[in-house]
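Record pair follows.
FIRST:
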Amino acid sequence: MIYFDNAATTRVDPKVASVVQEAMLDVFGNPSSPHTLGLAAERLVRQARDALAAAFGCRADEVYFTSGGTEGDNLAIRGVLEARSRKGKHIVASAIEHAAVLETLKHLADVGLCEYTLISPDGKGYVAPEDLVAAMRSDTVLVTVMAVNNEVGTVQPIQEMVRQVKATDNAIYFHTDAVQALGKIPCRVTDLGVDLLTASGHKLAGPKGVGSLYCRRGIRLSSQTTGGGQEEGLRSGTENVPGIAGFGLAVELAMNQMTERVRNWREMQECLLRLLEEIPDSHVHGEPLSNAPHIINVGFPGVKGEVLVHALANEGLFVSTGSACSSKRAPQSHVLAAMQVPRDVAEGSIRISFGSANTTKEVERAGELIAKAVAELRRFQRQ
């Protein structure tokens, strides 16, 4: 098996799984309980919070645990709208955001709780900071742009975006979805300048069902889950201690190994790109070697991406057609459509994404399998 769908989810690191199991079986107390088991569980949560704070370059009390990237994005958007209702209800976002952002904006607009403007990228997937500023209004309360696009890997100039947005209206909050960025590129909030940042555990060899939201101290954000007042009242509910403990270790490992991992991924990207160039009429989207190191998106006209994915899976190579959160129901990638990729190319596109355990040898084998499958499917299509 060659697993190249790591942008969808990753295999849990054995060390992380061990920590999760220990938290389930041994440190199983409620972290709000005052007894020994409760204090031990609370210690695991605190250690994980410290690991996230170190990765983000922020204070530990600015990190809030969630159930994942989707909840983090929702909490940022809904929390800002509710807290800043006096200023307005307008949000600016890129047209290539994750469904957790786009579907949330659409729903809130449908029920009259917000208005939003989407900014299209250029043909490489980049969003121009000045376009964000041009779309801002006096009632704009939030700008949200993902740090690394989950389908093509484009790294957005978040720091410059924040600078221009704040220079125009310092009262506007800036949120970035960094789910595909954490552990792949630097995500220090002091450098980025963002007010809110979303992360997720299962994208970097951590468990599913756990994530975090960085919320800069002093930012007004309304809780969307009320109850016992956990997470400083921002996100009530008994903490997912096993998931949080695993998330914390996964982040620590990813940060300690990031330099080596990025070097390996860049070598695999270069190798794969050479192999893809040998396939007639292949179209690589964006600028992979300038993008995030773990993602390549490529299109093959005359082939249906979904059919190609299944053909490769039958050979033991696992890739995807795009976001795992929407690829099962979306007829065409909204990201590639926004980049104005021709429809026949977009429909024949697949995403290849690396993880920490992948090797160049696997890339070479994958190149052979992709070339063979594309040739066979095109030949079948012509018959």
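SECOND:
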Amino acid sequence: MDTRTPTTTHLTDDQRLDWLRLIRSDNVGPRTFRSLINHFGSARTALQRLPDLARRSGAARPGRICSEEGAHAELAASKRLGVSLLAPGEAGYPPRLATLDDAPPLLGVRGALDVLMRPMIAVVGSRNASGAGLKFGGTLARDLGEAGFVIASGLARGIDQAVHRASLEGGTVAVLAGGHDKIYPQEHEDLLATIIETGGAAISEMPLGHVPRARDFPRRNRLISGVALGVVVVEAAHRSGSLITARIAAEQGREVFAVPGSPLDPRAAGTNDLIKQGATPTTEASDVINAVEPIMGRPIELREPGEEPMASEPEASDRARIIDLLGPAPILLDDLIRMAATSPTIVRTVLLELELAGRLERHGGGLVSLI
């Protein structure tokens, strides 16, 4: 069983430096990065134009642009730690993650690159897990590993650490919320070292030195589901982080699985609700395998961000009309383009300007709003 996809990208050293500078600059997230590359054709040109783009949409002052010295320092520090900064399409960048619109332009990868190219199943669950949940999670991860799947999880307490330990032999990937040198929880530094030593890997989109904060974990969760064919939730109370992962997985088009539990145990309330909402009930590895086998043979098409730069620039009247149509209530991009009565290129350019000025928020499902 193998769904490896031929690599389609290889950055030069200069390009990698430019990409790192761009993604580390203020108001540039993964989607903005992709838009900038699409618009200008290269990160170097985008870096030169950032101040002007922000100014057009009313930014009081240009956002911070990552310096060459700062990017060189991060690349050197990453190399000392054994971390490679990889672009979508390069060997070691998980193929399914590369297909997402908000895939990290540069992913920090540490460990065995080949394990990241194999089919993955994410297994997540409660930090305050029951003994039965820990046992089932470990058994499921081990059985999936024997069937050829790599197990991805978040290195958290409870279910995450149990499935990592159970899948060391078959291959496991830890998805980090902080930088590679800021492991959370700290007590799992030894577990991560064991994962790396036994042929597994760790990934993060955060720079070295970044200490994870509460808002970083949902962002991390999209990577957990993004690398995988499907996500299994073993235990989850109402309003738990694992349910966020399940929701993101569904938005990404991933399969969602849930382990049923006792209605008397609050740690099963979230998983039981997922089943009511259409998640696949899971009591053994075959439930997962049978569901993902039909999609194993689908080709994964990696999209190189922007091969052709866009040439059109918006007129002042176009810009004013598009901004007038925006407000605090999210609106679909397709609706905005229709109502603006101009080309999609012009609308996307204005949105890019607003985003770089810190005035635009992007929501799931192609929705945007003014901040």
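COMMENT: Residues 1-7, 298-311 have pLDDT under 50 and may be disordered.
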